[in-house]
């Protein structure tokens, strides 16, 4: 029975409306509940994971969804911008408490060209790139950037779809034929006409990401850099913190803080980065893409950080102070793809935390994640080996030594080049989380010498 004093008298936000009802929405709702907030969802799948935690409204019930919530956020960056703009307008006129993140964040994240141009405008380094709207322009891009290059749709595309690796001149015509419809908006990957983007090839040693939360008053708190590995173009494993990245942390935090401030962002954002070397042989990071939402590479934070990315997003959206983002223990997050493991076998291993998304099994579908935590980074590898042994889909982790420790041998530039060339020969295993992707996946024999110093 709901009573009149169910909420503090000064609490003007009681219900959070979330655009999308997948596992990210589910975990946002889980984080909202202890803080005293309910969630409702705009999602056409009535049995979506988030349905366990609140009412689900279909897109045809948009007005009812709006009426049911006080403030709005999203869990999916391909949400139609028109909907987000409508909710932002309601907030601007005072009838609702806010739409976070703002529409500009989606506009940028949904267009790879705008995204790369924003990075460059902010003096944030990226791979070299060019817009391509014709086969002649594609030839010019290949000549200027040099081969190999990756040709992508600037909008749409997911799990490696919507891109073509051009390794030699004879690939140019085939690449154009495969992706040209996206320029006119006739392709299956996007209905919005937009140029393609050609990205130059850069040798890099590993992929990392940084997640940050920005409050309504502009305060920014960053999580440790993490290292990501992919299987068939889907995030398979995240190690937190990324070993040997203390010298890169400030570059990464400066970059994501600059982006968030430019967009007047509120909530959690992820910035995906490649680690490469400059002409002096010094490590630096290249920005790949932003995700204007909570992110798969931050799932470890539920158990592994003092305040999870999900709780910090909720705090930002409702106007509460942000929480401490420090790590509690070294962690590895593994995505469960396609087939559920025996949960008893998983939880029989010390340090395991299991999160089911309540989805039906389907090939390469993210249906759960597992976070393993140890007191020492040296204990991660044996724990991971035990976990991989009981996973039906081992997401490639049975093929390599995939835990980075302080004793790992450093990957030299020659080996990096050999690895990347091998990946190119395998048609470029691409990286994505939900709708995003980029270039080359290295194998897991990568490295470092020291753990990141605490902030």
Automatic annotation (TrEMBL):
Composition bias, Basic and acidic residues: 443-455
Domain of life: Bacteria
Keyword Calcium: no
Catalysed reaction equations from the record: 5-amino-1-(5-phospho-beta-D-ribosyl)imidazole + hydrogencarbonate + ATP = 5-carboxyamino-1-(5-phospho-D-ribosyl)imidazole + ADP + phosphate + 2 H(+)
Domain ATP-grasp, first and last residues per copy: 116-318
BP GO terms, sorted: 'de novo' IMP biosynthetic process
The enzyme's E.C. designation: 6.3.4.18
Alphabetical list of SUPFAM superfamilies matching this protein: Glutathione synthetase ATP-binding domain-like, PreATP-grasp domain, Rudiment single hybrid motif
GO terms for MF: 5-(carboxyamino)imidazole ribonucleotide synthase activity; ATP binding; metal ion binding; phosphoribosylaminoimidazole carboxylase activity
Keywords: ATP-binding, Ligase, Nucleotide-binding, Purine biosynthesis
One Gene Ontology cellular component: cytosol
Protein residues bound to ATP: 112, 152, 157-163, 199-202, 207, 230, 288-289
Pathway assigned in UniProt: Purine metabolism; IMP biosynthesis via de novo pathway; 5-amino-1-(5-phospho-D-ribosyl)imidazole-4-carboxylate from 5-amino-1-(5-phospho-D-ribosyl)imidazole (N5-CAIR route): step 1/2
Keyword GTP-binding among record annotations: no
Region Disordered: start-end pairs: 427-455
HAMAP family from the UniProt entry: PurK
Function: Catalyzes the ATP-dependent conversion of 5-aminoimidazole ribonucleotide (AIR) and HCO(3)- to N5-carboxyaminoimidazole ribonucleotide (N5-CAIR). Catalyzes the ATP-dependent conversion of 5-aminoimidazole ribonucleotide (AIR) and HCO(3)(-) to N5-carboxyaminoimidazole ribonucleotide (N5-CAIR).
Family that this chain belongs to: Belongs to the PurK/PurT family.
Protein name, entry field: N5-carboxyaminoimidazole ribonucleotide synthase
UniProt source species: Psychrobacter urativorans
Organism phylogeny: Bacteria, Pseudomonadati, Pseudomonadota, Gammaproteobacteria, Moraxellales
